[in-house]
Amino acid sequence: MRRAARPCEAHREIYKKLVLGFFKVFLLPQKTSAYGKEKKSPSGGLLKELNKQQLMCFISSPSLSLATFRDKLLAPILVERVSGTYGNYIVRQHIVSILRSSGWHIDLDTFYSTTPDGIVEFTNIIATLDPTRKRRLVLACHYDSKKLVNFIGATDSAVSCAILLDIAISLKQQLDNLKSRADDITLQLIFFDGEEAIRDWTSTDSLYGSRHLAMRMSNTIIQGQRSLTELQAIDMMVLLDLIGAETLQFQNYFQQTTGSYYNRLRTIDYELMKLTNDRSWPLFTSSVTPSYIMDDHVPFLQLGVPILHLISYPFPGVWHTSHDNEENLDYPTVQHMRNIMKVFVVEYLHLKQINCQETSIFHLIL
Ligand SMILES: [Zn+2]
Q1: What's the number of domains the chain is made of?
Q2: 133, part of any domain
Q3: Cα–ligand 1 centroid distance for 151 (angstroms)
Q4: How far apart are CA 155 and CA 74, in angstroms?
Q5: What is the CATH number of the domain that holds 155?
Q6: What are phi and psi of 203, to 5 degrees?
Q7: Would the keyword ATP-binding turn up in this protein's UniProt record (predicted)?
Q8: Any idea which of 8-12, 41-45, 64-68, 266-270 has the lowest mean pLDDT?
Q9: DSSP structure class, residue 219
Q10: Is the peptide bond before 157 cis (omega within 30 degrees of 0)?
Q11: Which pLDDT value is given to residue 302?
Q12: Proportion of the chain above pLDDT 90, given as a percent
């Protein structure tokens, strides 16, 4: 995503945000905004909230241990994976093979784009539990890494992508139940390629994958539907980015459309924190603020998709440096975030409650 601020620059950034906010709100016509605005009223379903006892299930009997999460899901992504390179291909294979073997429908959106370094091949990965359904909860991350020497991008955005894979694996039984349940809703996981600028961030050198996919989805009718496009079928896109550092903090950027979901995440965060002692302060702050961070949600936001942007702000101190590696991840934070996201997905999709005693079948997949 576009650089917003390092922690040490936070004050300067806040000032800049205020100035930009003034120009955006009072001087610029809305359609010239580069950031889009909230257009669609919330179409998401009601959450089926878990009680404290049910939340405890996620803590007391995790279906996928932290060690397995690290070794089997995250570690293969912790390599240089610049768009159009072999590393990018290998990571794509890792993501696709895990999801295919878990029964997901995989759509690879491959295209070529001109960049400052010539023509590059990009491939978005779209995994859908049931592509014929009319409503989708979308969870998204970007799997490419920035073209910098020795840059792994653990928080940017390997952890986010591993959390998406974790949801597919850890909740497999419940998601399989959803597939066989008569319902309109399904889950879709999007792994964007080409989020990073090849050189310096501009409107054309950045967000290659999300710009391409948003257009493609707005022109693609869902199988079996007369006129409903893939884009219109998105209830909400939850975009995860810059996750994994101890300093992780989220803010509520889209109060009008997804604010109620942000607030529920905040409550889940708080309740799980009380149960686990994994962290001593919450990830979801009470701050409600306009969004000025450019990221993969922007092309979708501009086409009216409700967005929940889960990005750390301020950015992690290791952002776009060679120190953004596994050594600087904070695993209690990662573990906490894994649990929060799983609870949210269970609640949103009304998945069958986990039986704490049930043996997971994840070992058959990994
Ligand atoms: Zn980045």
Answers
A1: 1
A2: yes
A3: 10
A4: 11
A5: 3.40.630.10
A6: -70, -20
A7: no
A8: 8-12
A9: T
A10: yes
A11: 97
A12: 75
List, for residues 228-274, the tens digit of each pLDDT value.
999 999 999 999 999 999 999 999 999 999 999 999 999 999 999 99
- Reading the block at residue 324, the tokens are 């953004």
CA 119–ligand 1 middle distance (angstroms): 20
Q: Report yes or no on 100 lying in a domain.
A: yes
Helix (H) or strand (E) run with residue 331 in it? helix 331-348
**What's the rounded Cα separation, in Å, for the pair 118 and 193?**
16
Q: Is residue 279 part of a domain?
A: yes
- Decide: 210 and 300 in contact? Cβ < 8 Å: yes
Angle, CA 358 vertex, CA 352 and CA 364 arms, to 5°: 100
- How many CB atoms are closer than 10 A to CB 307? 25
Rounded to whole angstroms, what are the CA distances from 225 to 104, 128, 200? 20, 16, 41
Count Cα neighbours of 183 within 13 Å in the Cβ-side half-sphere: 20
> pTM (2 decimals)?
0.88
Ligand 1 centroid vs 137 CA: distance in angstroms?
24
Give me the domain span that covers residue 253. 26-349
214 near 303, Cβ under 8 Å? yes
Q: Give the active site residues.
A: 195, 241
- DSSP per-residue string spanning 267-318: HHHHHHHHHH-S-SS-SEEEEE-------TTHHHHTTT--EEEEE-SSPPTT
Q: pLDDT tens digits, residue range 189-233?
A: 999 999 999 999 999 999 999 999 999 999 999 988 889 999 999
Give the contacts of 211 (CB within 8 A, at least 6 positions apart).
Answer: 299
Q: 26 CA to middle of ligand 1, Å? A: 31
Give the separation between CA 92 and CA 71, rounded to whole angstroms.
17
Ligand 1 centroid to Cα of residue 267, in Å, is: 29
Interhelix angle for 255-276 vs 52-60, to 10°? Answer: 60
312 C-beta neighbours (distance < 10 Å), count: 22
Contact indicator for 310, 235 with CB cutoff of 8 Å: no
Q: Nearest Cα to 362, choosing from 69, 164, 50, 127? A: 69
Residue ranges with strand state E in the chain:
105-115, 118-128, 135-142, 185-192, 234-241, 250-252, 284-288, 307-311
Residue 233 lies in a domain: yes
Amino acid at 280: S
| Residue 11 confidence (pLDDT) | 38
